[in-house]
Amino acid sequence: MTAAFPIRILLVDDHVVVREALASMLSLDADFQIIGQAGNAADAIAIHSTLNPDITLLDVRLPGKDGFAVLKELRRRAENVRVIMLASSSLPHEVGKARELGSRGYLPKQITREQLASSVRSVHQGATCWEHSRSVPQPLIHALSARELEVLDCLRRGLTNADTGRVLDISEHTVKNHVKAVLEKLDASDRTEAVARGFELGLLS
Length: 205
What we know:
The protein is an alpha/beta fold. The protein folds into 2 domains: 7-134, Response regulator (Rossmann fold, 3-Layer(aba) Sandwich), CATH 3.40.50; 146-200, Orthogonal Bundle (Arc Repressor Mutant, subunit A), CATH 1.10.10.10. The protein contains 9 helices and 5 strands; from the N terminus they run βαβαβαβαβααααα. A 5-stranded parallel β-sheet has the order 2-1-3-4-5, sandwiched between helices. Strand 4 (83-87), helix 4 and strand 5 form a beta-alpha-beta unit. Helix 6 (146-156) crosses helix 9 and helix 7 crosses helix 8 (172-185). It is elongated and about 65 Å long.
């Protein structure tokens, strides 16, 4: 059913391709109107204050301040804001943090157009949307090499790059390259998140 007035949506994601994909998916429905887009925290806060959207789809990972910092600031300015967090995967501690900070939902980016549209409508009507985060499979992740798995295990042990180099008998520069690859392949923002993802995916035990 088409709403009397379209639901005005702000998209926040640092990847232009993702924003365009979300905009394309939602624009197929006359109920939705994309009124703004932002690729970082500062722009997201500024645009939100100016446009006052009905729903904000907010990526967890942003350059500089992350999505949780943006959510906290938006809630500080207006407690009734309706924000749905988006992430590449459903990490339990992130879902919990989103709830704690007042998000109306947390959705993996792999949901279908129908699930996304349904979630936006539900939140606009005052409900929440957490159910899809438990049912969507993990995203496809590039396989870690044997060496990268060794480096990930060293991260689990809390070793520095220098210590890791000594343990694996490789240079510190090579370790840095492997750590960078591990973070990218696991879609992790730092070492702690990489280790958490490693346990979640069964790469660590």
